[in-house]
Write a structure and sequence with these properties.
Number of strands of chain A: 0
Low-confidence stretches of chain B: 1-8
Order of helices and strands of chain A: HHHHHHHHHHHHHHH
Number of helices of chain A: 15
CATH class of the largest domain in chain A: Mainly Alpha
Mean pLDDT of chain B: 85
Oligomer: heterodimer
CATH architecture of the largest domain in chain A: Orthogonal Bundle
Distance between the termini of chain B: 60 Å
Number of domains of chain A: 2
Helix content of chain A: over 70%
Low-confidence stretches of chain A: 1-14
Number of helices of chain B: 16
Mean pLDDT of chain A: 86
Chain lengths: 305, 327
């Protein structure tokens, strides 16, 4: 403070401040380049080129919405979108319910809490490829779970989700839930720990049961935690790719294809860039549709509050 | 009654402590144990399968412990399993992953920590805007940025080739190997750049929040003493930020090791990371399926993040909680 009010020093400080900002700016060049060139530039470039007829190489022959028309005419894309919707719906519901129940169980001041948490969370450290391959083996009809139950004497037992087009998405779901619920559980547990102990005391004084307290008091209080979890799960669902490649590779046939896989296949294998760009733009649109309400709730609400 | 009066101040309140094995508790622990079995099952099955011989696997009973333990599948997975024409096992993928991981770790964390420090302590006009764009970028599906990055890597590879080409006559005159065409696309260095780019939002956020929580007086005192941008960073901020560096390392090691998408797109077969090679080994359509070798290979690939997970404990949770903010 004394230094700042000293006039001669202040005059020296002005150019100094210019200089130090320059250093910070130089240090931020990688960040600025990433933000502008890759994130903004790259995205705009892809959206722009989704209106071209690019095939092996990107070119600028405008074809309007032709790529999108082809996209939505393609069976494979429709199946991909339907699969993702199915997977997304069940993944979201099950993850939220299971993760909350587990977090609530762990929050009941139980013994071995750390052991249980370690067990529930370890799959999250594993990659989707490892997850997919492990479950592919367990669900193997010839040697896996099905054959074991049959070996126990239940000869007609049928559990072969991965080879049935109707159920293959549920086979993926079993693996996806195994990998991902631990993370959401940890977030929910942190949320539960943040709730004031007095709330519980008040509920007990009023004679409200434990389950009822959770449903009517605790869950509404945990709204921000639920919204964070929702955004997290949703952005994970849209990215769904490695798990499918490892566990089913889109099969049987094309019955477990997903949009992210469609994009990669058309861009890097089928040499049909335009389709890849159009499909990835559709993915971007779906993210924007999810994000805008969330950003509104999160940041719009804060300004009002 | 007399007793109660004697300790009037410390009368036990509330309901009587429940017995440990009340009905509710049995239900609670029962549920947790059953769910734990579901979570532990794949690890157990992978383990026992990888220790069995193929004849035993064909007998069925995937859940049974191995009657005769063999380590052959592990040896085979590590050094003999084939992908395409290469039959040197997963060891190749392992070392590729190591060579991808180490430089990516150093580059991404050093960039992000300096960025976070600049954003927290040396705000300049527009810095917050760039940061917001960076964070929003973390939500954009990678698919929309994959191809532009291919072009950028290719072009900057050519750019660097051109930049260093003036040295070639000198090198030739000295009898040394001149620079050939430098490629970033389809090379380890290209993948390192990609990992640093996509790790930047979350890591920058992590470091920015950490440095913002450091008392400002410390920073101001150093400024008054005449310390500049880098002096403050290296002498004051870096030593204080060790815990957050550990969190960032955990986050990046698991993230980069587990990556599949970038590996498959930005590298080529002989430098594929471990996850990609694992998938190619297990899902190859040729030859007889050796499930025990496949499971040994799967476990080998999962080993690095698992070791990190079990060794780091609480810090891992902190790391992913920080990752959760990113979304």
């Amino acid at each position: 403070m004394t230094v700042a009010s000293d006039p001669p020093v202040q005059t020296v400080r002005k150019p100094n401040r210019m200089f130090k900002n320059k250093m910070a700016k130089i240090a931020s060049i990688p960040m600025i380049l990433t933000a502008l060139c890759v994130f903004v530039g790259g995205t705009l470039w892809t959206v722009l080129h989704s209106f071209t007829g690019s095939r092996m190489l990107p070119k600028r022959d405008w074809v309007g919405l032709a790529q999108y028309e082809r996209l939505w005419d393609s069976d494979r894309w429709i199946i991909s979108v339907k699969n993702l919707a199915l997977y997304g719906f069940f993944s979201l519901t099950f993850t939220l319910v299971v993760a909350f129940c587990l977090a609530a169980c762990l929050d009941r001041k139980i013994r071995f809490e750390n052991t249980f948490r370690t067990i529930f969370l370890y799959p999250f450290a594993l990659s989707f490829v490892v997850t997919g391959l492990a479950w592919q083996w367990i669900l193997n009809p010839q040697f896996g779970f099905q054959s074991v139950v049959r070996g126990w004497g239940w000869e007609s037992f049928n559990f072969d989700p991965l080879n049935n087009p109707e159920t293959v998405m549920f086979g993926l779901l079993i693996a996806g839930l195994w990998q991902g619920t631990g993370l959401i559980m940890c977030i929910m547990l942190a949320g539960l720990r943040g709730i004031d102990e007095d709330i519980w005391k008040a509920a007990r004084v009023d004679g409200i049961g434990t389950v009822k307290t959770y449903v009517q008091v605790i869950i509404p209080m945990m709204r921000p935690v639920f919204i964070t979890s929702l955004v997290l799960i949703a952005s994970g669902i849209i990215k769904l790719y490695d798990l499918v490649v490892a566990q089913t590779n889109g099969g049987p046939g094309i019955s477990s294809e997903v949009p992210a896989k469609y994009v990669i296949n058309y861009m890097f294998q089928a040499q049909n860039l335009g389709q890849g760009f159009a499909a990835s733009t559709m993915m971007l649109v779906s993210v924007v549709i999810i994000l805008i309400p969330w950003a509104y709730l999160e940041f719009g609400g804060k300004k009002n509050g | 009654m007399a007793d109660l009066n004697a300790n009037a101040g410390v009368v036990p309140q509330g309901p009587k402590p429940k017995k440990r094995l009340s009905r509710g508790n049995i239900f609670l622990y029962g549920t947790l144990i059953v769910v734990s079995l579901y979570y532990l099952l794949p690890l157990y099955v992978m383990m026992v399968t990888s220790l069995k011989g193929m004849p035993e696997i064909r007998m069925g009973n995937v859940f049974g412990p191995p009657l005769e333990i063999t380590y052959q599948p592990w040896v085979k997975a590590w050094s003999e399993a084939c992908t395409g024409i290469n039959c040197d096992g997963l060891s190749r993928g392992f070392w590729n992953s190591v060579w991808i991981l180490v430089p990516s770790l150093v580059l991404s964390i050093s960039i992000a920590s300096v960025n976070g420090y600049a954003l927290a302590n040396w705000k300049f006009k527009g810095s917050e805007t760039f940061f917001t764009v960076l964070i929003i970028g973390a939500f954009i599906p990678y698919q929309t940025m994959l191809y532009p990055l291919v072009i950028m890597l290719r072009e900057s590879g050519d750019g660097i080739t051109w930049l260093v080409s003036w040295m070639n006559p000198i090198l030739e005159a000295l009898g040394m190997e001149p620079f050939g065409r430098i490629r970033l696309m389809g090379s380890l260095s290209g993948l390192v750049i990609v990992h640093s780019i996509f790790g930047m939002p979350i890591l920058t956020l992590l470091f920015r929040n950490y440095f913002a929580s450091v008392p400002e007086e410390l920073f101001k005192a150093a400024r008054v003493d005449g310390a500049g941008f880098w002096t403050i960073y290296f002498k004051i901020m870096l030593p204080m930020a060790l815990p957050i560096f550990v969190v960032a390392i955990i986050l990046q090691v698991t993230g980069i090791w587990n990556d599949f998408l970038f590996g498959v797109i930005y590298t080529k077969p002989n430098i594929y990371p471990m996850t990609v090679q694992l998938n190619n080994i297990v899902n190859s359509v040729q030859g007889v399926k050796e499930y025990n070798v496949n499971m040994a290979a799967t476990l080998l690939t999962g080993l690095v993040p698992l070791v990190i997970y079990f060794a780091s404990g609480k810090l891992f949770v902190r790391g992913i909680a920080a990752g959760a903010v990113k979304g």
